[in-house]
Amino acid sequence: MPTIHVQMFEGRTLEQKREFAKALTEAAVKTIGSKPESVDIIFTDVKKTDWASGGVLWSDKA
Predict the structure, then answer these.
(1) Fewer CB within 10 Å, N side or C side of the chain?
(2) What CATH number has the domain bearing residue 38?
(3) DSSP secondary structure string, 28-60?
(4) What is the pLDDT of residues 11-35, one digit of tens each?
(5) Residue 44: closest CA among 2, 8, 3
């Protein structure tokens, strides 16, 4: 029973999340033999002010 945590910047549509969830589920079924109903995906939307790379907030990048 894999649980996949996806953190990404906010702003994706519901349809994009649906399609991504389907693609991730299909990949888990194909690569590790999971049953589709046992794959859990948790989306966490993150504001650019709450994410930094290389010591710089994404909200500060041009």
Answers:
(1) C
(2) 3.30.429.10
(3) HHHHH---GGG-EEEEEEE-GGG-EETTEEGGG
(4) 999 999 999 999 999 999 999 999 9
(5) 8
2 catalytic per annotation:
yes
DSSP letter at 10 equals S
* Per-residue exposure over 1-40, b if at least 16 CB sit within 10 Å of its own CB, e if not: eeeeeeeeeeeeeeeeeeeebeeebeebeeeeeeeeeebe
The one-letter amino acid at 27: A
* pTM of the predicted structure, to 2 decimals: 0.88
Range of the domain at 22: 3-60
Q: Residue 60 — pLDDT band, cuts 50, 70, 90? A: very high
Mean predicted confidence (pLDDT) in 32-51: 98
Number of domains in the chain: 1
